[in-house]
Write a structure and sequence with these properties.
The structure holds two protein chains of two kinds. Chain A has helices at 24-28, 52-56, 79-91, 184-197, 232-237, 264-270, 290-304, 319-328, 348-353, 358-371, 389-398, 407-412, 435-438, 443-468, 490-496, and strands at residues 10-14, 34-37, 39-42, 62-66, 96-97, 112-114, 135-137, 146-148, 154-156, 166-168, 172-174, 201-202, 219-223, 240-244, 255-257, 278-280, 309-314, 333-337, 346-347, 379-383, 402-405, 483-485, 499-500. Chain A is α/β, with parallel strands linked by helices. In chain A, helix 11 links the parallel strand 20 and strand 21 (402-405). In chain A, helix 4 (184-197) crosses helix 14 (443-468), helix 8 packs across helix 10 (358-371) and helix 11 (389-398) crosses helix 14 (443-468). By secondary structure, chain B is α+β, with helices and mostly antiparallel strands. Chain B has one domain: Aminohydrolase, N-terminal nucleophile (Ntn) domain (Glutamine Phosphoribosylpyrophosphate, subunit 1, domain 1, 4-Layer Sandwich). Helix content of chain B is 32%, strand content 26%. The longest helix of chain B is centred in the N-terminal third of the chain and has 15 residues, at 115-129. The termini of chain B are far apart. The relative contact order of chain B is 0.20. Classes of the chains: A alpha/beta, B alpha+beta. The interface between A and B is large, with 44 and 47 residues. Bound molecules: iron/sulfur cluster (2 copies). One iron/sulfur cluster binds at residues 14, 19-25, 40, 57-59, 61-62 of chain A.
């Protein structure tokens, strides 16, 4: 019997007429595709189409193609399903994968269009006029209370105002990716870029490495079910604290970072023994209900000197009620992660079949909080496949205060979405701890690329605002009147509060 | 595009409504004949402490029903048809009446409300439950005169030149988003405040959703309505000083805020962060009139015209300078107010702030301002 019924997904073709025989492909590939025997010999079965070799081949002589082996067409039993059965029959295990849901679910963002001004109100030219993106993340009071200042003017009343909010120069932050799942150089790139862009990065659940201390004012420190790296100093260093309850890519399940990724640095940062598996339980074992969450929120506030505390949840069916509970429990922001959000590792069945789209989650949470009159009490951060400035603008119009990007940030650093993050062999040096791979990301280079991306999207958002005839992002935020739906069913339109185009 | 004007003699001296007509007549091009209107303050010195209801009735039945309500809940000291004259261009006028009245002391005592709250409740009751009846204004010593037509026609129709007031606001309408009807012309009023507006706010979507959170119902879909409720929210319910309310509606840029003195920065930063969803973004010029003066405000980057002038104690604003040259013989100063800088005229010795003592819910305000059935009549009923 063959050891496997599975055929390679990709074909690696080298045009040996052009090949320099330099061996760079051998060195670049993290998956061990190449052997070198006078010339590079690829093993197709190991290729994940990450294009590291293609990018670095000086002769441009490598072509990666889909392995077009014809399987008899079956719209029901797709090739993917058949291969999964073969794989599981082989291993008896849960299939793991990385990055976000790749199934062709309806993408609501792609069915929403934005408005523009014509005649009755003017559009605004962002190249000539100020176009403001500044955003304050956190709990806002219902009103602004002022008292006379004794000199004929007024000043804020004691305790009034938004002192506890975090200023963001643009409504875009980096989503949590833990040190351990990504490399320290990735963390440094994110932290440096966050500082340069006036935004935030997020430690994820793996603690804060000492090298990031200089950037701590631009770092959200996360507290997840494994409590890795959490101590009073960690809480006090962060600009904000985030309790991670769930993740869009794997709602309801915990995490598992294999011992191989726990090197000395990761072990120190996470405060766990070197080489031991880092297991995050599915629930927080001190949060079995909303009142427990409230206690944790306030313990963290106490421990940190009243820093803003956010709660990250996966977008699930009952997300509106859950978010409302979170806000009432005292959270300063609710982080909603849609079902297309990325992950370093998740069971494929969970990633592809659990949760709801972020567009719906934003809309129902925003509306619910408004209906309850508590919308101002917490910001909404939306993530889970924000792929462009257009997605960002639409997410804001649906009601998000801020969007967060993870996959897009990794792509800025070279990620090609090969979905091999869980293997620890990322050829791009991102989701790996192997020193020969992690050094591929120079933090200075990474920070520059991330900064460029954030600036580019911000400029595009400014263009969109200008077309909409407003010059501050708060006038787009929650303004669903500026969105129209094309090709969405009436019920979805109603749920997200957007009229069909033409109305 | 619309045209507007406001004039206020801060000494409290009275001027003829002719001034308001003249100021609007030169701005005729700014409207299309589908709506014009005025509000005058200090015009009923013979009834300074009576609420004056300016009523529009579509038919006699509506009038009878409304009068039954007035008779039941108020002491009506004078009821008379609005003086009007035939004017070319004005057709299809509703029945126009005015009533000088005061809440019936027993009914008022039973209701356990202030007189102002009581009046707003009655305005809502009439607007929402009597088909074809609309309260155009309900304040003391003031009145709104509005309808479908060019403003100078409307002014002559109502014989405005025969009234004398210390403050006047006027409006010429070029409706692009709502059809012209008599009640829908500007100014919109609640008790003795009135609002006229030129613009189309690009942030309407979030402004109205923000207001809904506080219970206001934006039923007309007009920007003026939104502006009126935002003033109500900030001035009356949140008790913000007028200057700060203006700064919230037409916020300074962050770059300007960052250059302010520390304490002011803290106030402005909070103001923008908290009232950001209420910021009126897009082109507008607004005049808010009340029994104590007026305030005129432009959007944050001045996308709609607003010019101001001062002549002695008289402050005047208009969409076009010509309006002021028409009215003021020798202005001491004519200037273009900066974007977001309110022009405030206050009459010496008159009360301030505006209606800080009302106890109305947001939906009551919505209903009373628009005259649209925005509220549940059950909750309106006053025994
Ligand atoms: S990197 Fe390109 S040129 Fe170099 S050995 Fe590999 S295929 Fe040949
Ligand atoms: S991070 Fe690396 S392993 Fe993961 S998808 Fe991107 S390129 Fe592949």
């Amino acid at each position: 019997m063959p050891t496997s019924l599975l055929q390679p997904e990709f074909r690696v073709d080298i045009d040996y007429n052009k090949c320099h025989k330099c061996g760079r492909c051998v060195q670049q590939c993290g998956w061990g595709v190449y052997n070198f025997n006078e010339r590079p010999i690829p093993d197709d079965s190991k290729c994940r189409a990450c294009h590291r070799c293609v990018t670095y081949c000086p002769a441009h002589c490598i072509t990666i193609r889909k392995n077009d082996l014809a399987l008899r067409e079956n719209a029901n039993w797709t090739a993917g399903l058949r291969k999964a059965v073969w794989r599981q029959a082989e291993t008896g295990g849960v299939m793991l994968t990385g990055m976000g849901n790749d199934k062709p679910y309806l993408n609501i963002f792609d069915h929403l269009v934005l408005d523009a001004c014509q005649v009755t109100n003017p559009s605004i030219d962002p190249l000539r006029e100020p176009m403001e993106l500044r955003t304050y993340l956190g709990r806002k009071p219902d009103s602004v209370e002022v008292v006379p200042d004794g000199n004929g003017g007024v000043r804020l009343a004691e305790g009034a105002g938004i002192a506890n909010n975090i200023k963001l120069d643009t409504p875009l932050i980096f989503s949590p990716m833990s040190y351990g799942s990504v490399s320290l150089n990735v963390h440094k790139s994110l932290a440096m870029a966050a500082e340069r862009c006036g935004i935030l990065m997020n430690t994820g659940e793996g603690g804060l490495h000492a090298d990031l201390y200089p950037y701590q004012d631009h770092v959200i420190v996360q507290v997840a079910s494994g409590r890795f790296g959490v101590n009073p100093e960690y809480l006090q260093r962060g600009a904000a604290i985030e309790i991670k309850v769930g993740q869009g890519a794997k709602p309801g399940i915990g995490g598992h970072l294999p011992g191989e990724k726990i090197n000395k640095e990761v072990s120190t940062t996470r405060m766990i023994p070197q080489g031991s598996d880092a297991i995050s339980p599915a629930p927080h074992h001190d949060i079995y209900s909303i009142e427990d969450l409230r206690q944790l929120i306030y313990s963290l506030k106490e421990a940190s000197g009243y820093k803003p505390v956010g709660v990250k949840i996966a977008a699930v069916h009952n997300v509106a009620a859950i978010a409302s509970g979170i806000v009432r429990a005292g959270a300063d922001y609710v982080y909603l992660d849609g079902f297309k959000g990325g992950t370093g590792a998740a069971p494929q069945v969970i990633r592809d079949h659990i949760g709801i789209p972020i567009e719906i989650a934003i809309a129902v949470v925003d509306q619910r909080l408004r209906d309850e009159g508590i919308r101002n009490q917490a910001s909404i951060v939306a993530a889970g496949s924000i792929r462009s400035s257009a997605d960002m603008a639409k997410a804001l119009a649906l009601g998000a205060d801020v969007v967060a990007i993870g996959s897009a940030a990794l792509m800025a650093l070279g990620c090609h979405m090969c979905q091999g993050c869980h293997t620890g062999c990322c050829s791009w040096g991102l989701t790996t701890q192997k020193p020969e791979l992690t050094r591929r990301v120079d933090p200075e280079w990474g920070a520059e690329r991330l900064t460029n991306l954030v600036h580019a999207w911000s400029h595009e958002l400014q263009e969109i605002l200008g077309a909409l005839g407003v010059n501050a992002v708060e006038s787009l935020r929650g303004s669903r009147e500026r969105l129209r739906a094309i090709g969405l069913d009436a019920q979805t339109c109603e749920i997200i509060g957007v009229k069909p185009a033409g109305m | 595009m619309c045209g507007l004007m406001g004039i206020c003699d801060q000494s409290g001296a009275l001027m003829s409504g002719e001034n308001a007509i003249k100021a609007m007549a030169v701005q005729r091009d700014r409207g299309n004949g589908l709506g014009g209107g005025y509000a005058g303050y200090g015009i009923y010195p013979e009834f300074p402490d009576h609420f004056c209801f300016h009523m529009m009735y579509h038919d006699v039945k509506a009038k009878e029903e409304a009068e039954a309500v007035f008779d039941r809940y108020f002491t009506v000291d004078l009821a008379e048809p609005m003086p009007t004259r035939a004017v070319k261009g004005i057709t299809d006028a509703p029945l126009l009446w005015r009533y000088f009245l005061q809440p019936d002391p027993h009914k008022l005592a039973d209701s356990e409300m202030t007189a102002e709250d009581f009046v707003v409740h009655m305005v809502m009751l009439v607007n929402s439950s009597i088909d074809g009846a609309f309260v155009a204004s309900s304040g003391k010593n003031m009145g709104a005169f509005k309808g479908v037509g060019f403003p100078e026609e409307i002014g002559h129709y109502y014989l405005l030149e025969e009234y004398e007031g210390h403050t006047w606001v006027g409006h010429n309408r070029f409706p692009t988003n709502t059809p012209g009807w008599w009640g829908g012309a500007h100014p919109f009023t609640l008790l003795d405040w009135s609002i006229v507006h030129n613009g189309e706010i690009s942030s309407y979507g979030i402004n109205s959703r923000y207001l809904e959170q506080f219970g206001y119902k934006c039923t007309l879909g007009t920007d003026t309505e939104v502006a009126a409720y935002l003033f109500d929210l900030m001035l009356r319910r949140h008790k913000l000083p007028l200057e700060l309310a203006c700064k919230a509606l037409a916020s300074p840029l962050w770059s300007e805020i960052d250059r302010m003195p520390e304490a002011e920065q803290a106030v402005m930063r909070s103001l923008r962060a908290v009232y950001g969803p209420g910021m009126l973004n897009g082109p507008f010029a607004i005049v808010l009139g009340f029994n104590g003066g007026m305030v005129a405000l432009n959007d944050r980057i001045k996308l709609r015209p607003l010019v101001a002038a001062r002549q002695g104690s008289i402050m005047m604003v208009a969409s076009e300078e010509s309006a002021m040259r028409e009215v003021l013989t020798a202005p001491d100063e004519v200037w273009a107010p900066k974007a977001g800088e309110p022009v405030i005229a206050r009459i010496e010795g008159m009360d301030w702030p505006i209606h800080g003592d009302l106890h109305l819910s947001a939906s009551e305000v919505s209903c009373a301002v628009t005259g649209v059935d925005a509220c549940d009549v059950e909750t309106v009923e006053v025994s």
